[in-house]
């Protein structure tokens, strides 16, 4: 379907985006051969420099527990976000943008790896060494990915992603938008199961 695509706005360190992962994968599997999918990093807490206070950590983990109860996905609570952790989502978002620039077909796979590392393995995906390790096997040139990660153009493109989210008026994530020659149609802003998304998307596609 020419010039028609799904815009997927999400952040690898957003718990509801992690919860939405299986639904998005089903959406891609069902429609990816007909319409393209563009991953846009939303920027949950980009540029945050504050150490996560204990009270806020408990609040975040409470939300994780809600996502786990709703979706059945696995979370690692015990070692997550240890003392001194800074919840800055810009590095992980920028790494996704770097992967998108170098190997566009691997961007979603890399996004999934980041989520799994952060939520299931309690790894610190704000650290460059972790971001580089998780990219192994997805690009043919590890040095090129490392260079792209810190390229000023990648930093600029990441900020443009954050700006695009706000241009679309999206406050919550995950969000999925149908882009077509006549404009944009919001499929969802927030978690929705695949079957609901499928019905909505089929109805929208009949109109474009």
Protein architecture, described:
The protein is an alpha+beta fold. The protein has a 4-stranded mixed beta sheet with strand order 2-1-3-4, with helices on both faces. The longest helix has 18 residues.
Summarize the structure.
Residues 11-201 form the DSBA-like thioredoxin domain. This is DsbA family protein. The chain has 208 residues and is α+β, with helices and mostly antiparallel strands.
Distance between the termini: 10 Å
Strand content: 5-15%
Oligomeric state, counting identical vs distinct chains: single chain
Order of helices and strands: EHEHHHHHHEEH
The largest β sheet comes out as: 4 strands, mixed
Q: In terms of per-residue confidence, which ranges show pLDDT below 50 for 5 or more consecutive residues? A: none
Domain DSBA-like thioredoxin: 11-201
Protein name: DsbA family protein
InterPro entries: DSBA-like_thioredoxin_dom, Thioredoxin-like_sf
Pfam family, one: DSBA
Distinctive features:
about 210 residues; 4 strands; 4-stranded mixed β-sheet; Thioredoxin-like_sf; 8 helices; alpha+beta
Q: Which helices and strands, and how do they pair?
A:
Blueprint: E1 5-10, H1 15-31, E2 36-41, H2 54-71, H3 90-102, H4 107-120, H5 128-134, H6 142-149, H7 152-167, E3 175-180, E4 183-189, H8 194-205
Parallel strand pairs: 1-2
Antiparallel strand pairs: 1-3, 3-4
